Amino acid sequence: MTNLSQQGKNSKKAKQTKQQKNSGWFYFHIVIRVIQSLLLVVVSLFILFGALGAGMGAGYFAYLVEDTKAPTKEELEGDLENVDETSHLAYADGSNISAIDTDIKRNSVSSDEMSDLLKDAVVATEDEDFYQHQGFVPKAVLRALVSEVTGIGSSGGSTLTQQIVKQQILSDEVTFERKANEILLATQVERNFSKDEIVEMYLNVSPFGRNNKGENIAGVQEAAEGIFGENADELSLPQAAFIAGLPQSPIAYSPYTNTGELQEDLEPGLDRKDYVLFSMYRNHDISKQEYEEARDYDLTADFQGQESSDNNNERNFLYNTVMNEALEIVAQQLADEDNISSEEFAEEETYQNYIQEAQQKLANGGYTVNTTIDQDIYNAMQDTAENYGYLLDNNNQVEVGNVYMDNETGKILGFVGGRNYEDNQFNHAFNSTRQAGSAIKPALVYGPAIDQGLIGTESRVSDYPTKWRQGENKGDPIVNATNKGTKTFQTVRESLEHSSNIASYHIYRDILDEEDDTSFVYDNYLKKMNYPDTDSWTYESASSGVTEVTTLQQTNGFQALANDGVYQEGYLIDSITDSSGDALYKHKENPERVYSKQAASIMNDLMRGVIDSGHTTEFKSDVSNLNYSLANADWVGKTGTTDDYKDSWLVVSTPKATLSSWSGREDNQGTDRDASKRTAQYMSYLANSIYQANPDSLGADEDFELDDDVKEEEVSEFTGTKVDDNDTVEVDGSRMSVPSDTTDSYWAKGTPPGPSFKFGIGGSDNNYEDYWKNGPEDNNSDNDD
C-alpha cells in the first residue's frame, strides 16, 4: 500500500508537472503568436506607410519639379560648358578697348589632355559610386534630407554630376525645390553625356584656388600650370591628388596667397592631398606602395615660386576711368532692383557690397561696355601729352588733365588723365580737385549777372584798389594777377578780357546783395551743373576761384554756355549690352537749362574777346603757328591761375565742342608766371592733334551767334548807362555833362540804368569823383589769368 500510495503520489506529481509544462508552452506560444501578430501589423503598417510615404514623396518631388522643363542635350551642353564669359570695353565705333579683367583665369582642355590619375583622384574623392549611379544616390539624398530636417549628421549627398549641375545651372541655396531640380537635371545629364564627358566638364569648370601670381583660377589646366608648371596630362600622382583635393575648399587648400606668395601654413592642402591618395587606394586605383610613396613625397618642392601678374598689362587711364563709371552704373542698377533707397546705398558697407557684386557681373557676364570715346581722338590726345607735355615743365614735374566734350550731348570724346600712367596713376581729368582760379568767372560771376539782368556787356565795373570785407582775409587788398587795381571803371567786356579780380569781386557781391542770399548763385546755377556742394561759394572770395573743382566739372560748365545755356552732364558710357546685344543700360540725356539763350550767347561773345584779344592767353596765335585754318575757328574761352601759379587753367570752346586743360604740380607747389604761356602752347598742340584726328568733331566752320532776343542797347561809352542828349550829373557840387560818345551794349534781361553819379558796379564816392574828372584812362594792364 505504501509503495502503491507512494507511486500514486509520484504519478500525480508527475502529471501536475507535465500539466505545468504544457501550460507554460501554451502561454509561450500565445506570447509568440501575439508578437508575431504585432510584428505582422507593424510590418504591414510600415509597408503601408512606406508605400504612402513613397507615394507622397514621389508626389512632392513631382510638385517641386513641375515647372522645370527637361532640357535638351543642346541646352544642357550650353549650360554646362558655359563658363564665365569675358566682358569688353569698346570705343564709340565698337572697336575693342580691352577685355575686362576677371578675377578668375580659366583655360579649358579636353579629356585627352587630362591625366587619368587626376580623373581617378576626383572620382575616388568626390563620388566613389560615380560609375554605378545614374546621377544621384538615393541613400545619400535621404541622408542629406534627414540632416537638413534634424540638423544631425552630414549634409553631404551630391554626386559629381549633381555638383556640376549646381555650379553651372542652379544656385547654391539650400531648399527642397532646388535639391529636387538638381536631381532631375542630374539624371538628364547622365542620359545625355558619357561619364568621361561629365568628368571633363567638372574638371574644366571647378575652381582651384590661386596660382603663383595670386590670380584666382578655374579648370585643371590653369591649376596644373599655375601651381606646378605642368600641363594637366603631365601631372605626377601626388600632384594630381593635390589638385583633385582643391575644389572642396579652393582658397583654404590653395598653396598661394592673393599676391602669389606661398602660404605660411601649407598643412591643410597637404592633408587634403593625403586624404585623396587614401581614397584612391581604398578605391583600388593605386597600390599600397604607390599610395605610401606618393603620401611621403615632399610636394612642397614642386610648388612654383611667386611671379608677377599679367593683369595690369592693359590697365591705363581709359580702362580705369570707364570701369569706375561702369561699376557705379551697374551697382546702382542692382540696388534699384533690390529697392534700396539712396540713403541706404550711400552707406559705405552697402555701397561696397553692391560695387563688389557689380565687379563680378562686369568681369564674368559677357558684357560689352560701349563708351563715347573716339579712338582716333583719344590716341591723338595721349600722343600730345607724351610728346609735348614737356612744354608744361621741362623737369617733368608738372602734371596735366584734359577733357574733350561734345557740347550738344555731353559725350566725352577723349581725355588725358596724366602725362605718364606708369609713373602716376592718379587721374587729373576726373579725380583731381584744384582751385579754379579765374576760369570760374564765366560760370559763377559773369554768366549769372548777365542772366539776372544786372549788367550788360558795356556796363562799367570798378577796378580801383579795394579790400576784402569778409573772411580770414578781411582788410587785405584784393589783387589782380599783376596789380592791385587799374584805378578806373572797366567795361564788363574789358574786365573779363583782362581777368580783373577786383571787378569780378564787385559783380559777385552785387549779385549776392541784390538777391540777399549768399547761396543764390550756387543754388540757381552751379548746383544744376554738378559743381561741388560747398559753403565756399557763399564767400565773396569765391569770385577769385578759391573753390576746388575737377577738370571735368570745369569742362561741363563751359559746355553749358556753349550749348545755348543748357547743361548736359558729361558721360563716358553710352550703353552696356549683354552677349546677345540686348541693352542692360542705355544713357538717357537729361538736359538742364542753366542760363537763358540770351545770356549764354552774350557770354560766348564776351569770351570770344578773351581769346581774340590775347590779353591773358596766346592760345590763338599759337594755334595759328600750327594750323592757320584751325585758328580761324570761332574760339571762346577763359584762362585761370592761382596763387604762386600753382594751377594753370585754359578752357576753350567752339560751337560744337569744349576742350579744357589744368596743369600744376602734384605736390601743389608753385611754378612761375610763364605757366599760362606754357599752357597755351600745350593746348594749341592738343587742339591741332584733335583736329587732325577728327576735324568734324570741332566744328571749326561754325560760329557762335547772338540770340535773336538779345537786347542791343545804345549806351554811353563813358558810363555804360542810357543815353540822353541833355544828360548831366552833379559831381563835387558841380554839374557835368555825360560825354556824348556811345556804343552798343548787349543785355539778356532788363535795360541799362539812366545816367547818375554812381553809374557803375562797386567803387567808392572818391573813385567816382576821380573817374568823372579824369575819364577812363587806359590803365588796363594784361593779367596772366
UniProtKB/TrEMBL annotation:
Signal peptide: none
Region (Disordered): 724-785
Catalyzed reactions per annotation: Preferential cleavage: (Ac)2-L-Lys-D-Ala-|-D-Ala. Also transpeptidation of peptidyl-alanyl moieties that are N-acyl substituents of D-alanine; [GlcNAc-(1->4)-Mur2Ac(oyl-L-Ala-gamma-D-Glu-L-Lys-D-Ala-D-Ala)](n)-di-trans,octa-cis-undecaprenyl diphosphate + beta-D-GlcNAc-(1->4)-Mur2Ac(oyl-L-Ala-gamma-D-Glu-L-Lys-D-Ala-D-Ala)-di-trans,octa-cis-undecaprenyl diphosphate = [GlcNAc-(1->4)-Mur2Ac(oyl-L-Ala-gamma-D-Glu-L-Lys-D-Ala-D-Ala)](n+1)-di-trans,octa-cis-undecaprenyl diphosphate + di-trans,octa-cis-undecaprenyl diphosphate + H(+)
Protein name listed in UniProt: Penicillin-binding protein
Keywords: Carboxypeptidase, Cell membrane, Cell shape, Cell wall biogenesis/degradation, Glycosyltransferase, Hydrolase, Membrane, Multifunctional enzyme, Peptidoglycan synthesis, Protease, Transferase, Transmembrane, Transmembrane helix
Pfam families from the UniProt entry: Transgly, Transpeptidase
Source domain of life: Bacteria
Keyword field contains tRNA-binding: no
Residues annotated as transmembrane: 38-63
GO molecular function: penicillin binding; peptidoglycan glycosyltransferase activity; serine-type D-Ala-D-Ala carboxypeptidase activity
GO cellular component: outer membrane-bounded periplasmic space
Domain Penicillin-binding protein transpeptidase: 403-646
Residue ranges constituting the Glycosyl transferase family domain according to the UniProt record: 94-280
GO biological process, one term: cell wall organization
